[in-house]
Design a protein that fits this description.
Mean pLDDT: 79
Helix content: 40-55%
CATH architecture of one domain: Orthogonal Bundle
Low-confidence stretches: 55-81, 99-119
Structural class: alpha+beta
């Protein structure tokens, strides 16, 4: 069989993900903060982009891209600037600022001058102390030797976020070239630093250390903590009453003492700062209708730099022209992508408002079943686009701020053949638990029966248990209060 070269024409069609298309898809799924950072980065890297003045505001039209130019009187920029300067100069700032004015401050604190002028910005800030730093500071102020401090540093380096020791004493002894007895002695000292009970290996050890430091010597109390923590956790009280020959009131007093102890001594140091969410859009009730307002606060208004654009039109040759053309295309595409992102976000929220009208009117209990395909078909887009635009996006509603994915939930069948959203059922379960008698909490089976009576919803006991767990609600045996 001979080999030969042969030319052949073939016509095929395929989708190519260009860098511009990849950028547009990426912008869809960025959160608001990530979008602002991306735009700012592009402003720094692309000379054709610049931040323009805010001269337009989003109207309440159906298309998110429609804008209305703010109406202005026939006043020139120079005249407006002169009037602003005059108003600022003639304002009675001392009366307006009150005690916060400079003269008031001088009169109130003549003898308490602080040389803030020479302080750097970093010098005025204070960082949150870490658990490791807090314990290390106490060790340095103690009478421990250098080698003991080294052992202590290995101990605090093996603490988890709750303050429990995650390494064996033998392991720490090997790492520090020490005897096990030396490590145990240093560990004993560290466990009695602030917070007391730090570096304990079990919750039992942690609580017993705190009882020791507080000088509790009641043998019943020590036995309850040392031998019966699991019974207390699972509320098996009757065997304890028989064993210690006490009444329920006496056991209650012991439980109150135990509840003053901290089983997670390192949690206060390891807790993260709260994350604040800035909504991507607002939905307001106006008369008998709702208005959608996109949140453009902090997002730069982009425009093409005229000077660079004129330079490109004047012509050129070589690598400079190719660079300018590439940056120009990138700038135009970014502006189009941002517009398309905002328009898609507006259309999705508008569709959610149509499907979940009852929720916006009355609240979470009226949330209906909804899937991505419903919204995708309504706005004539693909499901993947709807999924991307609802990722890490939040909307402020009359009933609170929710992630857009919150409005998509599964369905449960009703007796009349209709359906109800799972989030509505979860809200009802939470309300039932909140209103129950703490001494006689409802079981999952009872909650299922109540949902059947109130909502006519067919729900199994195991489904109630699943929703209850998702809401962070304990079982009826752990919710029961005996006192």
């Amino acid at each position: 069989m001979g080999l030969e070269l042969r030319q052949q024409l073939k016509l095929t069609q395929q989708l190519v993900m260009t860098p511009q298309l990849q950028q547009a898809i990426k912008l869809l799924q960025l959160s608001r903060l990530e979008l602002m950072e991306t735009v700012q980065q592009e402003l720094l890297e692309n000379p054709f982009l610049e931040e323009g003045p805010v001269v337009a505001e989003v109207s309440g039209s159906d298309d998110a891209g429609d804008v209305q130019t703010s109406k202005a009187e026939d006043v020139s920029p120079a005249t407006a600037a002169d009037e602003s300067v005059t108003a600022l100069r003639d304002a009675d700032w001392e009366d307006y600022l009150g005690e916060f004015s400079s003269t008031a401050k001088q009169s109130m604190s003549r003898n308490a001058e602080v040389p803030e002028e020479g302080m750097s910005f970093e010098a005025r800030l204070s960082s949150k102390p870490s658990l490791e730093g807090h314990i290390a500071w106490q060790m340095r102020l103690s009478d421990l030797t250098e080698h003991e401090v080294l052992i202590g540093e290995h101990i605090i380096g093996n603490l988890d976020r709750l303050g429990y020791l995650q390494a064996d004493v033998e392991e720490i002894a090997s790492e520090t070239d020490s005897d096990v007895e030396d490590v145990e002695r240093v560990l004993h000292r560290v466990q009695r630093l602030d917070p007391v009970g730090i570096a304990a290996r079990t919750p039992r050890e942690c609580l017993l250390i705190q009882l020791e430091v507080e000088e509790y010597q009641d043998p019943v109390l020590l036995s309850l903590v040392g031998d019966h923590l699991e019974d207390l956790e699972k509320r098996r009280y009757k065997p304890l009453l028989r064993k210690f020959k006490m009444t329920m009131e006496e056991l209650h007093d012991y439980l109150e003492t135990i509840q003053t102890l901290d089983p997670m001594p390192g949690a206060s140091f390891g807790s993260e700062d709260p994350i604040y969410v800035s909504p991507d859009a607002y939905v307001y009730k106006y008369e008998d209708d709702f208005v959608i307002v996109l949140n453009d606060d902090g997002l730069p208004k982009l425009q093409i730099n005229d000077s660079y654009s004129d330079s490109l039109k004047s012509g050129g040759a070589g690598a400079d022209k190719d660079f300018f053309q590439e940056k120009m295309r990138s700038a135009v595409w970014l502006m189009k992508s941002l517009y398309q992102r905002q328009r898609t976000l507006y259309k999705v929220i508008e569709s959610l408002l149509k499907f979940q009208r009852d929720f916006f009117e009355e609240g979470v209990t009226r949330l209906k079943p909804l899937i991505l395909k419903d919204v995708a078909d309504d706005i004539s887009m693909h499901e993947s686009t709807v999924s991307r635009i609802t990722t890490s996006k939040y909307v402020a509603t009359p009933h609170g701020t929710f992630e857009l994915k919150f409005f998509f939930n599964s369905a449960l069948d009703l007796d009349d053949g209709s359906q109800v959203g799972s989030e509505s059922v979860k809200a009802l379960i939470k309300k039932i638990v909140d209103d129950e008698n703490p001494k006689k909490p409802f079981s999952d089976e009872k909650i299922a029966e109540m949902l059947k009576e109130k909502l006519q919803v067919n729900i199994a006991r195991r489904t109630v248990a699943k929703y209850r767990t998702a809401l962070g609600i304990a079982s009826s045996s752990k919710r029961k209060q005996y006192f």
